[in-house]
Amino acid sequence: MKPPSWLGLTLALVVLLTATTRSASGTKLNYPRVLLPIFDHISVNFTLEVVEKGCFKWTSSRLDLIQITPSYDDVDEDCSYRVVVTVINKEKRRNTAIVLAEDLVTGEVLRCDVILDVIDQLGVLTTTRELYLEEAPETFELWAQDAQGNAFTTLEGIEFHWQIASHRSHESRHGGAGDSSWSQVLRFLTFSESKFHVVPRAIERLEAAGVQGYMVLLEGINTGSARVTARLPHGEYSHVPPVDVNIMVLANLILNPSDVYILPGDTIEFKVLQLKQGKLHEIALNSQYYLEIEDETYASMSGNAAKGLKVGRTFVLLRDRNVPHDALAGNDEANSKATLPKASLTVVDPMKLTINLLPHYNWVTVEGESHEIALNLFTHDDHQITLGAKYKIQSTFDESLFYPIRVTANGSSIFGETIATGSSPVAGKFEKVSYDLGQFRI
Ligand SMILES: *[C@@H]1O[C@H](CO)[C@@H](O)[C@H](O)[C@H]1NC(C)=O
Ligand SMILES: *[C@@H]1O[C@H](CO)[C@@H](O)[C@H](O)[C@H]1NC(C)=O
Q1: Ligand nearest, relative to CA of residue 39
Q2: pLDDT tens digits, one per residue of 86-95
């Protein structure tokens, strides 16, 4: 039996459609245009390839400018879809070569303009200008552009010189000559040294030769700021200005509490916590770190204890003597985002006292249960007030119903047990603040 003719027709149509879609979507080159730099003693390489594999014949319009080296498939020796373009021209001016790839099957021709020019300016690609201690090293990457502001397609295989200059801290500046307390803020790391990175192919050869390329790894080793400079160490580029970046190394610090309401005359202690490899560690205030009050009309600071002076809001600032705060406040754009932690401190009058029976916020309970009577003070706008050493909340309740086992020094928590059945009121009182009422039903 013959297959129906519509089947043959449909098949033919499908084949035709597939063929047209294929050529319409277009085989193309990975780059239609590349800009490569000219050096006296370096021949920059760039790999051009056809996005969809196939068999191509490669030609260049200017054999005096670039050399093209097609690479062939292992399977099919005549098939090449990839070519290495090597700059051989040494003349320091803009020149263009056209590379063509002809599809040996369809005859289609693909084109790439290879523009050669000299580097006019360097810049840093990386946007991070702050590093944290104890964190994975950060990659810093350069870009280069020609006089018209076009970025070079590759800086692969080009040696760069990088330098770090740490800014001296205020302390050590007074320390006199040969002061060894001056510490290095940053260090370079090779990609092979880093357990967080693999060596990028583009700088493999340079790293193996022990020199630096357009990408480096930087690691913060002490808090402070440093200037990183990169330059082209090639005679023909001595006129290109080096590029430099200011980098701030910060410790990953947290102030606790971060937002607190206290009463005038009361004192509250702040803790400084450091995040190290995902864990918080409390660090002591020392010769490096200290706390400061932003506006001393509202509060004063002594060590890590802040005292409320007058109703109002201010901030507790953590300072690092290695990081000058004018650098942080920043006229320099690089530093403007860098911040050490600050905590908000609001000095308030109490407005409201609440009493609750935890854990269920319900006064109906049974005999022999453990509970906490929680008393809390609030501001007029419902922010909870933290009590320090100076104040205490008073409370009264029937101890023959609820037996107190432990009471916090500020009186805000009474841990105990219900020991008899009955009903009895619970009252809390804080200075002039009207008290709220609870009522045990056991
Ligand atoms: C380009 O490739 C050639 C041949 O492999 C090599 O000798 C040369 O060092 C390469 N250039 C760069 C800048 O890596
Ligand atoms: C009272 O002190 C305890 C610890 O002693 C604290 O957890 C609690 O937050 C304090 N209560 C108030 C209202 O400040």
Answers
A1: 1
A2: 999 999 999 9
Task: Tell me, in angstroms, the distance from the centre of ligand 1 to residue 154's CA.
Answer: 13
Ligand positioned closest to the Cα atom of 71: 1
Of the candidates 310, 344, 378, which is a domain's last residue? 344
CB proximity list for 142: less than 8 A, separation 6 or greater: 122, 123, 124, 125, 155, 160, 214, 215, 230, 243
Ligand 2 atom closest to the Cα of residue 386 is: 14
Residues flanking ligand 2, CB < 6 Å:
376-377, 386-387, 408-410, 412
Same domain, 270 and 245: no
The whole-model pTM stands at 0.67
- Ligand 2 mutation target, pool 354, 410, 433, 436, most atoms within 8 A of CB: 410
Domain containing residue 228: 121-167+182-250
Q: How confident is the model over 213-272, as pLDDT tens digits?
A: 999 999 998 888 889 999 999 999 999 999 999 888 888 889 999 999 999 999 999 999
From residue 214, give the alpha-carbon distance in Å to each of 101, 200, 202, 217, 350. Answer: 30, 11, 9, 10, 60
The answer to whether residues 127 and 229 belong to one domain is yes
Out of 250, 284, 305, a domain closes at 250
